[in-house]
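Everyone, study these two lines:
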Amino acid sequence: MEWLNYHHLHYFWRVVRAGGVGHAAREMNVSTPAVSAQLKELQDFLGEPLFTRSGRNLALTEMGRTVFNYAEDIFSLGSELLDTVRNRPTGRPIRVDIGVADVLPKMIAHWLIQPALDLKENVRIVCREASSDQLVTRLATLELDVVLSDSPADPSRTARAYNHLLGSSGITFVGIGPVLKKVKGKFPHCLSGVPLLLPTDNTAWRRDLDHWFERNNIHPQIMGEFEDYALLRAFGQSGSALFPVPSVFAGELKKQDRIRKVGSTRDVELRFFAISAERKIKHPAVVAICESARKQFLA
């Protein structure tokens, strides 16, 4: 059986936390070559590069990030062990690593994640944002506990991803001030010719919206497309265009932004998923996220 040299791992961990070999050497009061030698020993043993050169600096590779996450847990546990043996209070928080798909509106991500912070236990969340496919790949290597997305993981691309439907919401079109004067007639055909702000076409709900427009012979004036929903909403607050919001949030946004509802449809649905590497979710923070979301959507 092979055993990891934790001395080498500790040097690697200190280098990443310090921000470089030189900084770590000064903190540890050892020579820079000594630190570099320890890093080389670790990389040779693992058979994987942990750093890549970025200009004059070193940056972690994907494997380097994975090893560092494990090192964080290993040395945090070691510190907790000493605290316990020496009768010092620990209070170590439950860590949950959450992947947030970059197409998921930030207000939805915040709403979904908040219940994890409301647990009685001390929880520390680590949120990472990327495309859904990239996050699911990291989920398979156990870098993440859960991925939150507006679409399920493709089972043909990975065998270690299970989709848990949290709920769904219809779409409500809203506006502020001047643009509302341009809305004539009954919904949804009143959207034709009206300036509209939409998410970009790499999102599930934009694709569904385009199909819905086509089925209903609606031809809006698309004034802007945004990858970041928070930016879309900020432009919508100017009153120059209508914009869609998940119906589940329409009431709350009305209080915050003084928006006015133009019309709603359930023919276009936003669906929200928690994607895990296990069929049955066990992490207490992820359980809280899923259970709270399902209750809210049912309500």
